[in-house]
Amino acid sequence: MSKKSKKIKRGRPKGTPNADVATQTVEISTCPKCGNDQRGRYYNIRRKEIAGADHQGRLYVAVEWKRCKCAGCGQVRDDKIFVYSDPF
Fold first, then answer.
1. Where residue 9 falls among pLDDT bands split at 50, 70, 90?
2. DSSP-derived secondary structure letter, 33
3. Which of 11, 62, 64, 70 has its Cβ near the most Cβ atoms within 10 Å?
4. Structural domain contains residue 5
5. For residue 3, is pLDDT > 90?
6. How many distinct structural domains can be found in the chain?
7. Is the Cβ–Cβ distance between 79 and 47 less than 8 Å?
């Protein structure tokens, strides 16, 4: 007897639009939609080794973008976090 295997389609369905994701650059992460500071776990963490100075003049060595979801309204957002070489 031969069994027929089901072909599983992978990925996003055709015609599905890209997700609209907001990016916040803040010390305390808050939702740009509702202002809530409660969030879910970070996922899809990206890091880029870039040196520079932030808006307060502190020198950083890398930038990380961490995706999360607001616990209040469900808005998906990217938190932009600067990585410093020395603590404050």
1. confident
2. T
3. 70
4. no
5. no
6. 1
7. no
The residue segments making up the domain with residue 60 are 22-84
Helix (H) or strand (E) holding 80: strand 76-84
Instruction: Answer whether residue 70 is part of any domain.
Output: yes
- Average pLDDT estimate for 52-61: 86
Residue 29 lies in a domain: yes
Residue 26 has pLDDT above 70, yes or no: no
Cα–Cα nearest to 79, from 21, 17, 36, 20:
21
1 domain residue, yes or no: no
pLDDT > 90 in the chain, percent: 39
Interatomic CA distance for residues 69 and 31, integer angstroms: 9
d(CA 86, CA 3): 61
pLDDT at 58: 84
